[in-house]
Amino acid sequence: MKKMAAMLVGMMCLGGVAHGESRLGPFASWLTSNDENAFGVGLKYEWLFNGKFGMDARAGYLTDSDMYVIPLELGVVGILPLERLSLYAGVGGGYYIPEDIGMSTPWGPVDGPDATFGFYGVAGIRMPTGKNMEFFAEAKYTRAESDEESTSGPIYRNGQLVGYTVHQTTKMGMDLDGIGANAGILWKF
Description:
Number of strands: 14
Low-confidence stretches: none
Strand content: over 45%
Oligomer: single chain
Shape: elongated
Mean pLDDT: 82
Helix content: under 10%
Largest sheet: 8 strands, antiparallel, barrel
Strand order of the largest sheet: 1-2-3-4-5-8-9-14
């Protein structure tokens, strides 16, 4: 599934070059969720149907002290050109692929979080820094969760019943609900 999603984003990027105005560039990311800070990098591709409306595709890598996540996002964007800069806003959906951080415990294996779908919204500014290049900075809200699962049941060791647990976590959760920011450079081609 990860390879298929990456190939889909790549084909969209290459297909959009033939029509409209395209931009591509790297960015740095920050996201805060549940009082945890995550930092990362990404690549943004934007295809504008006209000078004020288009689509963008993003692929990135975010990491905090516990795990990493690969967000693959696709959305729409609207641009309001002003005299020396532009304002923009957009919304979209994403597929968020977490690191498999499963572990063994005395009562059995605990699986890592599942990949999940989510959505995002952005608002930002752009400033030209050259003929075919512009700087962008944006505030971003992301909402994506993969809930943890719990079960109840007996505890066995070496085939012998040694106890009973009322609550046992079998899968860890992932929570990307939060506000963050991205900043980077886009090249027109």
